[in-house]
């Protein structure tokens, strides 16, 4: 932080705790989700169609629930604070993840995953928590550093989950993840401090009234759309990566290992530049960084259509990770500096709903396109999405254009 800005002594402790919480949440997700279909397969001799259906539903219902209930939690966050929302998410996830390890039917997993989605959101709420505690002049660097937590967890998770599942079985993996979320709950409860004054429901202004007073209403809407587009672009690739790698390798060699490396490459790219981009964002403004990131993502997706080996695909995905480091932190920073504190939780929750919707749309879009055409056609469609969003952001209005010329 700048020396002229006095921060509470508890700020660093809160930041470290929430960073660890986001890391462990990302770790838990990637420890279990890649192996969910294999776990479901052990519960019952399901046919191929049933197995694919149940696996897809177990993935999708979480995002469906998030999209539906996030505005409700956002309203509560503006009245009770973000810390309570982090505790709510960590507490419920402790029990739902642990319970998945006890089930004997796929439908029970789907129900538990829906409940988990309805009460989840630790990472988004922790990000909003830190955004509200941080001076606007350093929001970019803090948002970028918070992003590295979940990215690091997502990178390490598949390795830890695979080793643990191979050694002790899939059920034990869920038990361990549930226990870890319990630790996150306790750390958040005792090691974080939020400077928040509760607002009575009767005194809280309606979001429509607050939104009408904002200077950059169009900018906020465009950030919601950008979140949806970016998440859809990232998730459209996720379902087909291993299948594309298998095709590029002609079914020869250790496809699973190579697929894991290719899938992880964006995370390495993001980790490499996230902190530096955050500092740069604080200096030149988040809108410039967002435009550069969208342009870079558009450019990087196009060559993926022409790749002929998994290693060239991995290289371009590494570059995509670098571009991705400029996207979501920039969106979150713009929302932070453009929204009054009294509407902070609700605005971030709406953004979370768009993010969840993007995950669902992207996964479905990628599956449909790859089913109708070649796998690599998905990259061209995704590039078009990024280009459309770039043009949309560029046309937001005069405040944006003035910043670009600054």
Distance between the termini: 23 Å
Helix content: over 70%
Number of helices: 18
Number of domains: 2
Quick one: biggest sheet?
none
Membrane topology: Multi-pass membrane protein
Subcellular location: Cell membrane
Domain Major facilitator superfamily (MFS) profile: 14-401
Transmembrane segments: 16-40, 52-73, 85-104, 172-190, 219-245, 257-277, 289-308, 314-335, 347-369, 375-396
Structure description:
The chain is mainly alpha-helical and 406 residues long. The protein has two domains: 183 residues, MFS general substrate transporter like domains (Growth Hormone, Chain: A, Up-down Bundle); 200 residues, Up-down Bundle (Growth Hormone, Chain: A), CATH 1.20.1250.20. The longest helix has 33 residues. It is globular, with a radius of gyration of 21 Å. It starts with 10 loop residues before the first helix and ends with a helix. The mean pLDDT is 84.
How do you describe this structure in short?
With 406 residues, this protein is mostly helical. The chain is built from 18 helices and no strands.
Write the layout of secondary structure elements.
Layout lengths: L10 H22 L3 H8 L4 H33 L1 H19 L5 H14 L2 H12 L5 H30 L1 H22 L15 H7 L3 H21 L3 H8 L6 H30 L1 H19 L5 H15 L3 H11 L5 H29 L4 H18 L3 H8 L1
Helix pairs in contact: 1-6, 1-7, 1-8, 2-3, 3-4, 3-5, 3-16, 4-5, 4-6, 4-8, 6-7, 6-16, 7-8, 7-12, 7-15, 10-15, 10-16, 10-17, 11-12, 12-13, 12-14, 13-14, 13-15, 13-17
Keywords:
406 residues; mainly alpha; Growth Hormone, Chain: A; 2 domains; globular; MFS transporter; transmembrane helix; MFS; cell membrane
């Amino acid at each position: 932080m700048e020396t002229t800005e006095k921060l509470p002594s508890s700020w660093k402790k809160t930041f470290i705790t929430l960073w660890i919480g986001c890391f462990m949440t990302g770790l838990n997700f990637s420890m279990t989700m890649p192996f969910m279909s294999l776990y479901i397969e052990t519960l019952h001799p399901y046919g191929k169609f049933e197995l694919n259906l149940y696996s897809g539903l177990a993935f999708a219902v979480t995002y469906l629930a998030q999209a539906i209930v996030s505005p409700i939690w956002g309203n509560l966050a503006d009245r009770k604070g973000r810390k309570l929302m982090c505790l709510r998410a960590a507490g419920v996830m402790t029990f739902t993840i642990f319970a998945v390890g006890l089930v004997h039917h796929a439908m029970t997993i789907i129900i538990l995953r829906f409940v988990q989605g309805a009460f989840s959101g630790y990472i988004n709420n922790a990000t909003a928590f830190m955004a509200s505690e941080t001076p606007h002049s350093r929001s970019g660097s803090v948002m970028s550093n918070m992003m590295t937590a979940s990215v690091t967890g997502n990178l390490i998770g598949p390795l830890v989950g695979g080793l643990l599942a191979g050694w002790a079985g899939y059920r034990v993996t869920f038990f361990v993840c549930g226990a870890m979320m319990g630790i996150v709950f306790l750390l958040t409860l005792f090691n974080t401090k939020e400077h928040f004054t509760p607002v009575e429901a009767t005194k809280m202004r309606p979001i429509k009234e607050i939104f009408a007073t904002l200077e950059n209403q169009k900018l906020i809407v465009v950030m919601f759309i950008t979140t949806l587009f970016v998440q859809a672009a990232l998730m459209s690739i996720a379902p087909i990566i291993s299948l594309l790698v298998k095709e590029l390798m002609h079914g020869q060699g250790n496809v699973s290992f190579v697929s894991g490396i290719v899938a992880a490459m964006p995370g390495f790219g993001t980790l490499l530049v996230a902190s530096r981009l955050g500092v740069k964002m604080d200096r030149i403004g988040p809108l410039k960084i967002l435009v550069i990131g969208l342009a870079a993502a558009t450019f990087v997706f196009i060559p993926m259509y022409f790749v002929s080996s998994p290693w060239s695909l991995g290289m371009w995905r590494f570059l995509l990770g670098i571009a991705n480091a400029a996207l979501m932190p920039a969106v979150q920073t713009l929302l932070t500096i453009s929204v009054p504190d009294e509407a902070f939780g609700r605005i971030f929750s709406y953004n979370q709903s768009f993010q969840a919707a993007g995950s669902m749309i992207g996964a479905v879009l990628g599956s449909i396109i790859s089913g109708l055409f070649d796998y690599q056609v998905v990259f061209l469609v995704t590039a078009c999405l990024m280009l459309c969003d770039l043009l949309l952001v560029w046309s937001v209005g005069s405040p944006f254009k003035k910043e670009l010329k600054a």
